[in-house]
Amino acid sequence: MGGVTATTPDISAIGPETGPGTGTEDTGDTGTATGPGFAVDTDVVVVGAGYAGLTAASGLVEAGFEVVVLEAGDRVGGRVHSRPSRSGVRVDHGGQWIGPSQLRFQELADRFGCERFPTWESGSHIEIRGDGTRMAYTGAAPERGPGIAEYERVTALLDRLAGAVDVERPWDTPRFAEYDAQSAEDFFRAQTADEDALERLALAVQGVWCAEPREISFFHVLFYLASAGGYEQLMETRDCAQDARFTEGADAVAHALARTLEGRVRLGEPVLSIRHTPSGVEARTGSGTVVRAHRAVIAVPPAAVEHIAFAPELPTARRGWVRHTPMGRVAKVHAIYDRPFWREAGLSGIATLYGDHPVGVVFDNSPEDASRGALVAFVYGDRLDRWAALPDDERRRGILAALSEVVGAGAAQPIEYVETIWPRTGWTIGGYECFVTPGGWASYGRAGWREPAGSLHWAGTETASVWNGYIDGAISSGERAAGEVVAALRAAGRTGMSASRLAY
Ligand SMILES: Cc1cc2nc3c(=O)[nH]c(=O)nc-3n(C[C@H](O)[C@H](O)[C@H](O)COP(=O)(O)OP(=O)(O)OC[C@H]3O[C@@H](n4cnc5c(N)ncnc54)[C@H](O)[C@@H]3O)c2cc1C
Questions:
Q1: Percent of the chain with pLDDT over 90
Q2: How far does residue 79's CA lie from ligand 1's centre (Å)?
Q3: Whole-number Å distance between alpha carbons of 4 and 2
Q4: 263 CA → ligand 1 middle, Å
Q5: What's the chain's Rg over C-alpha atoms?
Q6: 12: which DSSP letter?
Q7: Centroid of ligand 1 to alpha carbon of 298 (angstroms)
């Protein structure tokens, strides 16, 4: 009986319903009411079927409550989206890697038997400097080179400062407001005048947050490091965030989780408005569907909250938070070859590029069996803005020229070329995640980050304390939000339809 509740949500103070979708449809045993304009009462409405929304829904169902998940897009998984390419390579257009300390994600992947394989990384990596200098190295960064010593000194300092961050109550961190008032750029420039080191630090910020150092709160940088377990965890491949990939794509876990929800997920239902009281909510979608519930879990990134009209308006702190947490700007471009030919020259396919190249970072994204070769190029921040504005053929030329500098002329002739420009994708409007601008944490963090607003609860990776910004963080955020809702509903004496059935 997915989606239907025995008790009627209290939305009496909201006022009479108007507009389309006011006829109630019994969703029957499958809970898969179809077609636009249905109306249903349930315990909890979940907005968004990314990893956070799916995990929240799953936790609520396990606790005996009924849910309806409203997803704007035509698929589950959100910022994690995998598809076989024309040449048969499974391409991860969004999130793809999993690391060993991402315990929530590891556990969920194990639960559904989703297999992983180590990220391809053997061989020499390449660094291309702004002046065209090309250097081979192994490990996270070259041991010697312009700016390396200063870069390492500053990143060690970042780790020391991140060690003091309270990831549950960030505002209790020593010097919280002082660090938050600065951009990462302010802090880096106060530390070093070495332009090469600054360039390396800038590429690190671009690679992790898809933003420029001038845009991001320095406190947010420290919070994020603390949340992931340190700088190396964010940057490195083996045993760190980029450790492994999924044989069947990183959204396989999301699809498996959605199947356990047995029809409670409704695709193609963008929530446009939410009316709410302290004890009830009513969500309306673009197709005229109306879902009334006791509580809502809103599992969309802050930047997407902007597109939902709330009545009454959100608390000012939440509204302020949303406005100070823009999405990063990133494109993921795959060039696919008949074989990973760069390995024959001892190259790993991993590269970092400075200067005028559109590409910042390259990885070998070949399939597990290496039946084809695949390079993935990341385009970030300001470079993304410039590159994305070019005509199709110039964009392609720019990427393939950069890849050719990394692995040789063979890169100019891929059998397939696939771009995903995230700021142009429908409901997410960027990636990898929303970052916090200077002053955002101190002004709005305490009351606006993830504090429920009456019957509205917040999930999404941006609300996570551990692995914030990652799939793992999305999962833990869904678990936390489900826990909040279950506690609130039980405190109000509600057990939910499934639980009351169990009780009898
Ligand atoms: C290019 C890229 C690379 C990345 N690489 C990695 C990686 O390697 N490893 C890693 O761990 N993480 C990575 N990430 C980050 C990771 O994908 C995200 O942290 C995670 O997927 C966020 O999950 P979520 O559920 O919080 O949000 P989302 O996945 O954004 O889910 C939100 C859902 O809500 C829907 N939605 C939005 N507005 C509405 C509305 N009004 N009504 C209904 N539905 C709505 C959206 O369509 C979406 O499905 C990457 C992200 C990108 C973009």
A1: 87
A2: 3
A3: 6
A4: 21
A5: 23
A6: G
A7: 13
Q: Within 6 Å (CB) of ligand 1, which residues are found?
A: 47-53, 70-73, 78-80, 94-97, 270-271, 299-301, 304, 307-308, 330, 332, 422, 427-428, 431-433, 460-461, 469-472, 474
The one-letter code for the residue type at 160 is: R
- pLDDT tens string 278-332: 989 999 999 999 999 999 999 999 999 999 999 999 999 999 999 999 999 999 9
The answer to whether residue 427 scores a pLDDT higher than 80 is yes
**What would the mean pLDDT of 186-210 be, rounded to a whole number?**
98
Report d(CA 338, CA 299) in Å as an integer: 40
Question: Cα–Cα distance between 327 and 425 in angstroms, integer?
Answer: 12
In the chain, the amino acid numbered 81 is H
Q: How far apart are CA 341 and CA 372, in angstroms?
A: 9
Write the single-letter amino acid at 289.
Answer: T
Could you tell which of 285, 300, 418 is best to mutate to test the pocket of ligand 1, judged by most ligand atoms within 8 Å of the CB? 300
**Exposure string (b/e) for 9-41, b if CB count within 10 Å is 16 or more?**
bbbeebeeeeeebeeeeebeeebebeeebbbbb
User: Contact 320/404 with Cβ under 8 angstroms?
Assistant: no
Q: Please state, in angstroms and rounded to a whole number, the distance separating the CA atoms of residues 156 and 231.
A: 8
Of 251, 432, 465, best ligand 1 pocket probe by most atoms within 8 Å of the beta carbon: 432
DSSP 8-class letter at 28:
T
Using the mean position of ligand 1's atoms as its centre, give its distance from the Cα of residue 295 in Å: 22
Closest ligand 1 atom to 96 CA: 8
CB-CB contact of 383 with 156 (8 Å): no
User: Tell me, what's the pLDDT at 97?
Assistant: 98
Is residue 284 within 8 Å of 154, Cβ to Cβ?
A: no
Secondary-structure breakdown of the chain: helix, strand, coil percentages, each rounded to the nearest 5:
35, 20, 45
Question: For ligand 1, atom 26, which residue shows the shortest CA distance?
Answer: 460
Among the listed residues 188, 187, 200, 207, the one whose alpha carbon sits nearest the alpha carbon of residue 146: 200
What's the distance, CA 494 to chain centroid?
33
pTM: 0.94
Q: How far apart are CA 95 and CA 97, in angstroms?
A: 6
How far apart (Å, rounded) are the C-alpha atoms in residues 244 and 250?
A: 10
Closest CA to 220 of 268, 159, 176, 256: 176
Q: Say how many C-beta atoms besides its own lie within 10 A of residue 169's C-beta.
A: 12
What span, in angstroms and rounded, lies between the C-alpha atoms of 53 and 74?
15
- SS in 3 state form for 60-128? HHHCCCCEEEECCCCCCCCCCCEEECCCCCEEECCCCCECCCCHHHHHHHHHCCCCEEECCCCCEEEEE
